[in-house]
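Cast an eye over this sequence plus tokens and walk me through the fold:

***
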Amino acid sequence: METAGIPFAELFAGGGSVHIAMSRAGFTTAYANDFCRHKAKSYRANCPEVRFDPRPIEQVRGHELPHVELITASSPCQDHSIQGERRGFGDGERGVVAFHVLRLVDELRGLGRAPKVLAFENVPGLLSVDDGRDFAALCTSLVSHGYVVGALLMNARQFLPQNRLRLFLVAVRRDVAVPRSLARSGPVARWHTAPLKKAHAALPIAVRAAWRWWTLPAPPSHPPTLTDLMEDAPADPRWVAPLRLEEIKARMQPQDHAAIEAARQAGVRVGVTLQKRRNDASGAPMLRQQVAFDGVARCLLASEGHEAQQLVVVDDEGFRVRPFTSRERARLTGLPDTYVLPANIRTRELTGDAVVVPVYEHLAQHLLAPLARAAVSASVQSRRAPVQRARKDTRGGSTANRPMKRRTTRLEVGLVPEAHQRISALAADANVGMAEFLLAAVDRDLSSRGLPPLPRYVPEPRRGIRSGGRRAAPSRRGAGARGRIGVASTPVRCPGGKAKVASRLVSLLGATTCLVEPFAGSAAVSVRALLTGATDRIVLAERDHGLRCLWQVVSAGTSSEFRGLVDRLEEAKPSRAWWADFVARTDGDQAPDVVAARRLLASRFHYGGIVRGGLARDEELHRHWRVGTMVERLHAIRRHRSRILLRGDAMQTIHEFRDDGRVSFFVDPPYSFAGGPGARLYEHHDLDHAAMLSSLARVRGRVLVTYDDRPEVRALAAQHGFSVAPLGIRDAHRRARAELLLMKGTGPPLPLSG
């Protein structure tokens, strides 16, 4: 399939350099946007066939964009350029508009036509501002939106005589099968230099897992020189006046005069001169006039200020100096001679901000075009009906399982490779197998129609679970669920805990540098995110003394304290009599490991983990006694203890982290509205819900809040700007019920139910 006709949208379009490059690669510009009226005038004069939108990107809405497979964005670079103040996303006002691209992606996703490929262009300073945190924030946002990412550093001097290094960040949706030839297993020296490798090393774990080392063919071996692009007889050369030329000569050092004489002897006619601020021997500031005759211009700037790059033309009588003409600047940017240029000062702004056409054309032909073809091919293949057939499977495994297997039906689905890759990637993102992922999709459809989910066949475990130093008899109930969850789960049972929907909530939060859970409780979501690599670190705030001791021992306790906790768990017996004796023996003992063990076991001995509730019967305890699993999970969390921070008060924790845009929040507060279960379930249930949501509304990062579905909750959510969606969950008795999910900030493209 050819690339011709594949539409793309060009954001921050400037004068149309990307349009020219992409058109040469076979793409069709379906939409272009830039709010600068001078650049808009040039774009319309040279690309009259393109639909151009002159509004600020903040005013553009997703439904106004046509269907496109790819979006390019060359967002403002002033906040990251070494020529600017390098205020970054946090304090700057211009660079942060790049995140409006992700807003448009969100809105397009809601319409069912999210772009498959995104391409960002910016200065390499983005890699180093704020120690790389700005670059990490942008990559994290892309991964959270369901994309894999990669970057290249490309210098215009590989194609044209201009030393202009730029960063290209390319993101592809996870459901696109990327051709192997487009990415390498590690960095490529030509495209991935030390600054990019350093920035990559500082990325969050989940982002590095979604990283691709994009590669391109080598650029042309013999690019043109500065002499090749000079105008032979410019209409207005504007030579520097003799008096001004004497000032330039006075600022030159002896080595600069020697370089001019060497160029004359070698027959080199053209060079460049540049003013540089330096300090003299006494430390006083001075201007030095540097010259170079390497055939390459330095980076063209929109506002050159004191640097004032100019041409040096050497002849037999000496040398003369003049600025670049508008046409020469356009040629250094790769614009064709047929391009209609504005006035001189506008041409300087246009070419100083523009991408270099041959650079973008090389990227488009050898990376963006193959990715677009793969995306379109996947879309076509996904619309083809798969071949299906059903048959009975009477083959059995263990003797105990054969009767159940004979009563099940095996369904085989024939998938083309592209469809298989897409479903496999989506299932991997959801941390489930392909079969379970497809069945969950059916369950979501049934739930939307008010029907119960499909029943499942749960195989028995082959081995018992270690408990108290002995191997217990295998349980017939829940083994499949335990096998799927594994050790990447919390060991604590709490009323209203989110263990059964933790994977879904982690997926909705997406990859993040830090995840804060102000009302930690069992910390089901934070633990799942930590152990699955979705976050680099977690912050747990908890007022309950027992739970705080538990997380303290696991994350920061000594080896002897942690061993004491494990020993007390392994010696436990599933009976009320043992529990009564243990409580009596440890009453008043405030050792951290004892308090932690008492609180953790209390969640197992009481119905539903409700410490204020009644004790479970002995037969019920025997049926659900899984202390060995608890110990395995504690060890798994302990291995990541350096990535866990503990806090006490929830509101103080929200205030502490809410201004950091790299931090996401999952908040599961006690449901303590009037008539709610908070007072019955929790010792610490007093909470000003309005104040909490008001504080969370000012959080810069992603926020998810779970609540029971009450009118006052919906009213507060609307008041503070939270979007609301239903959250289907199941309680300890597997009874379905619906709660509310309050959301703020951008997140990945995953369903809310299932």
In short: The chain has five domains: 7-223+354-379, 237-324, 387-414, 490-543+648-754, 546-641.
